[in-house]
Design goal:
Layout: E1 2-3, E2 11-14, E3 18-20, E4 31-33, E5 35-40, E6 43-49, H1 50-56, E7 63-65, E8 70-73, E9 75-77, H2 89-96, H3 101-106, H4 111-120, H5 123-139, E10 142-148, H6 155-171, E11 175-183, H7 192-200, H8 202-207, E12 213-216, H9 225-238, E13 241-246, H10 254-260, E14 265-268, H11 274-283, E15 286-289, H12 292-296, H13 305-309, E16 315-317, H14 331-341, H15 346-353, H16 355-360, E17 378-381, H17 388-391, E18 398-403, E19 406-407
Parallel strand pairs: 2-7, 9-10, 10-11, 11-12, 12-13, 13-14, 14-15, 15-16
Antiparallel strand pairs: 1-6, 2-5, 3-4, 5-6, 8-17, 17-18, 18-19
The structure holds N-(iminomethyl)-L-glutamic acid (NIG) and fe (iii) ion.
Length: 408
């Protein structure tokens, strides 16, 4: 039994079939058979087997009975573009007729069409739509979410998005981490070099208080390697932590570049060289895989998790929730895709959706595993064992989502 301090509990969650702590050294997932968790003030005080926890906290009246179902940490969705107006189902139909994602982007659609609808939406509307999306994520077992700006692409609209993200983090029960993604693509109404200079100068000072991370989309049709280098340098100097969208369609060498500059994560990674993998292994940068994207874009090229894992690089999973390349709320589905298409074991995928995802947003000390001192963010799933998550693919298995010790 792991124990933090000798105090009473204000809730206990008991009778799991298995409790996946991701902490004990029983196995990779830190499994405790018939495990239980004691919670106080929203934080975990102790994990152990149910009979021990029940004996230890006899006065605790708030007992959540998991009824012999699987209990594990809530999912951490460490890469989303959750705030935006409109949707792009019409573009999906165009893609189904044979147009590619990059062709649609280059012809002024794609991200540009979401920029148009996001600029047109009021902050209030964006907040309400995003709050509803967060509720759906919580229903699907997600307890913490990273959210990027990047559909404003001008000062007022990026600020509007970042303020909405801030308001969500103040008002919504899920934990939210904010990322500034002004470098999502080039706006059609400004000169390329003017936009880069605004991004690397004034915007950083303006948005520093709204976002912890700076992110960039390095790709043909978006930012090139040289621009990526100068923007990441400026953002780092301004005090942002770094992330980058790299290797989604083409390997421009940005995974190695961003990792060598201390990026906390690099994301997508369908295309990456061995050389850049070695740089990532040295830097400790987390590889965030987004397998919903090749799925939704009908690509056969998925990121290969084994190439990262073999080198000791932590691998995380996320939805990339966005209107163009993956409108899915479901981390359970990402586990399925990780297992079926990215060469992950079930253990790799569960670790990737929880503790490694928390690492990708610098929150591994706060949530992502069931450890005394961390937030009591847990889910009860309608299964007995983790391999049933990908087995029952496409189904929401969540019976209860518990955020900071409270059922939401
Ligand atoms: O992570 N790749 C760039 N950005 C998003 C997609 C944005 C969009 O299509 O609206 C992504 O896949
Ligand atoms: Fe993304």
């Amino acid at each position: 039994m792991t124990k933090l301090r000798d105090e009473s509990a204000d809730a206990i969650i008991i009778n799991s079939s298995k409790l996946l702590t991701l902490e004990t050294d029983n196995d990779i997932l830190g499994t405790i058979v018939n495990g239980a968790v004691a919670v106080k003030d929203g934080f975990i005080v102790e994990t152990g087997i149910t009979s021990d926890i029940v004996d230890k906290y006899p006065h605790c009246t708030n007992v959540i009975d998991a009824e012999n179902y699987l209990v594990m940490p809530g999912f951490v969705d460490c890469h989303t573009h959750l705030v935006f107006g409109g949707n792009r189902s019409v573009e999906m139909a165009r893609r189904l007729q044979g147009e590619s994602y990059l062709d649609i982007l280059k012809s002024g659609g794609g991200i540009h069409s979401t920029v148009k609808s996001t600029r047109a939406a009021s902050a209030n509307d964006l907040f309400n739509i995003a709050a509803k999306r967060l509720n759906l994520m919580a229903e699907n077992g997600t307890t913490s979410v990273e959210i990027k700006s990047g559909y404003g692409l001008d000062e007022d609209s990026e600020l509007k998005m970042l303020k909405v993200i801030k308001e969500l983090s103040e008002k919504h029960s899920l934990d939210i981490v904010s990322t500034y993604l002004g470098a999502h693509t080039f706006p059609s109404d400004s000169e390329r070099k003017d936009y880069v200079s605004w991004l690397s100068g004034r915007s950083l000072n303006l948005f520093m208080d709204y976002a912890e991370f700076f992110d960039i989309f390095t790709e043909e049709g978006a930012f090139d390697l040289e621009e990526t280098k100068s923007l990441l340098e400026a953002a780092k100097k301004a005090g942002f932590k770094l992330k980058a969208h790299v290797g989604q369609f083409n390997d421009l060498g940005a995974a190695g570049l961003a990792s060598s500059m201390g990026a906390i994560s690099v994301d997508h990674l369908e295309n990456i060289s061995d050389k850049d993998l070695d740089i990532m292994a040295d830097s400790g940068t987390v590889a965030v895989l987004l397998p919903g994207v090749p799925f939704f874009l009908q690509s056969s090229v998925y990121p290969d998790a084994k190439r990262f894992i073999k080198r000791g690089i932590p691998v995380a999973l996320a939805t990339d929730f966005n209107p163009g390349s993956c409108p899915s709320y479901s981390m359970q589905m990402m586990i399925t895709l990780g297992v079926f298409h990215c060469g992950m074991t079930v253990e790799d995928a569960v670790l990737g959706a929880t503790l490694n995802a928390a690492k990708a947003i610098s929150r591994e000390a706060v949530f992502g595993s069931l450890k005394p001192g961390k937030k009591a963010d847990l889910i009860i799933l309608d299964i007995k064992s983790p391999e049933e998550i990908p087995y029952y693919f496409g189904t929401n298995l969540v019976k209860k989502t518990i955020k900071s010790g409270r059922v939401i």
